[in-house]
Amino acid sequence: MGQIDVFTKEYMSNNEVFADAFNYFLYDGKQIVRPEKLRELDTTEIAIPFGNRKEEAVQKFRDGPRTLHEMMSVQDPDILKYVADYRINLIEPCEIGEDDLAKLRSSLRPVLGFIKYSKDSEELNAFLSKDSELKALDVKAAKVIKVCANIDIQINEGEKVVDVCKAVQDMNEKARQEGKQEARLETLYEAVKNAMEFFHVSMEEAMKGLKVTEEDRAILMKRI
User: Fold this and answer.
1) pTM above 0.85?
2) How much of the chain exceeds pLDDT 70, in percent?
3) What is the 3-state secondary structure (H, E, C) of the chain?
């Protein structure tokens, strides 16, 4: 079981979140399913418990086939017409509109919103600036964001809540600093190469003449 499955399953074990997802899928956000009435079974799947509906709502954040027919290797319509089709309704953050996000009452709203906008920095920054819940998000929800949006935010052991907004700012600042460092090393590497060619000296001699630090020397030597 991958990290996404582990963290989303743990997150969905929260009755408030589970009920919120169920109410969104089945009742268009109306608060019909009550968290206090739920008992834990297996949160990997959210199954419709009544009626004659050929549907199943599955708690997953992924791309892929959404019907039984789409999952089959055979696509001949003359064969498929004899196979009953079943639709799988997935939680697809990228397809959830603003109005639908507003129907969610738990931390599922900022989680899905973050994942939805994570591919566009401008939209993500706009979302972060207006969603105050992200400033103190439950750590389980933050872990889902981290693995599903594939972002390297820092989550410290023992934390119960995470300031996701600050974590993203810290991550971006770290990336900027790393970018500056990489640019500096590249410039230094070019200077060393030029010195080697101009003075016909070894790399060690060129770095010594340019007063390259031991730390930078070790990094530059790996680029040879």
Assistant:
1) no
2) 79
3) CCHHHHHHHHHHCCHHHHHHHHHHHHHCCCCCCCHHHCCCCCCCEECCCCCCCCEEEECCCCCCCCEHHHHCCCCCHHHHCCCCCCEEEECCHHHCCHHHHCCCCCCHHHHHHHHHHCCCHHHHHHHHHHCHHHHHEEHHHHHHHHHHCCCCCCCCCCCCEECHHHHHHHHHHHHHHHHHHHHHHHHHHHHHHHHHHHHCCCHHHHHHHCCCCHHHHHHHHCCC
